[in-house]
Amino acid sequence: MPEGHTIHRLAKDYAAAFAPAPVHVTSPQGKFTDAAALLDGTTLHTAEAHGKHLFLGFRDPTPTDWIHIHLGLFGKVTFGPAPAPPPTDTVRLRLANTTSYVDLRGPTTCALITDPEKQAIHARLGPDPLRPDADPDTAYHRISRSRTTIAALLMDQKVIAGVGNVYRAEVLFRHTIDPYRPGRDITRTEWNALWTDLVELMHEGVKNNRIDTVRPEHTPEAMGRPPRVDDHGGEVYVYRRANQPCHICGDEIRTADLAARNLFWCPTCQKN
């Protein structure tokens, strides 16, 4: 499932390609046909993200109709230049204009919603490190009262929105925090440092369209080690490095199932 930086990057790409201008909206697959017909020819005014949720706002100047998209595990978005090729029958939603097109396939959610419905989605999500309106105190209020592990809390979108498995594993390593510590044992100072780091790392993820979490002194060039070879790309400390030596201490990276996802950590470096 894409992490929050990917969805924010998509919002920027949608806006750059289509806003603010009228767009041709279709649903070749047919599951979004009625809504597409209502929006066809209207103006895509804005695109924004909150965590792993993407919102495309139509009507000008104040959006009154929103397409709510959640990619889930299988959703894919493909951009291309005009003229758009004939769509396949797997395309749930196509936006097109005279210069570009974008196809959406396989999302968990693709729905036309009103502004109040959109606000209700925002209300049930935790603060997003990539949004300027994010309040880290809201997240800490929940974390500091919970017996749940900090690793699980970081993946709970009601607590903090947009953090996925990679950022969860990496930010805990970067701050030497045991992933099994209860949230209530995380100090305010530790939380402030975690949040600040997430903001910086995730903004870099949006900018570079990949996740890199190792500090300059731990890059392959600095350490004289081979670069990471992985479909996900990016240099990391522990994510998907089970049974490999830690870049810092040399101990073996461990993995375990936590909240239905694979957790990765270094038992030596992460003792706090």
3D architecture notes:
There is one protein chain. This protein is 30% helix and 22% strand. It is α+β, with helices and mostly antiparallel strands and 272 residues long. The protein has two domains: 4-124, MutM-like, N-terminal (N-terminal domain of MutM-like DNA repair proteins), CATH 3.20.190.10; 136-265, Helicase, Ruva Protein, domain 3, CATH 1.10.8.50. It has a five-stranded antiparallel β-sheet. A four-stranded antiparallel β-sheet has the order 2-7-8-6. Strands 10-11 form a two-stranded antiparallel sheet. α1 crosses α7. It starts with a helix and ends in a 7-residue tail after the last strand.
Features:
272 residues, alpha+beta, N-terminal domain of MutM-like DNA repair proteins, Helicase, Ruva Protein, domain 3, 2 domains, 5-stranded antiparallel sheet, 4-stranded antiparallel sheet, 8 helices, 30% helix
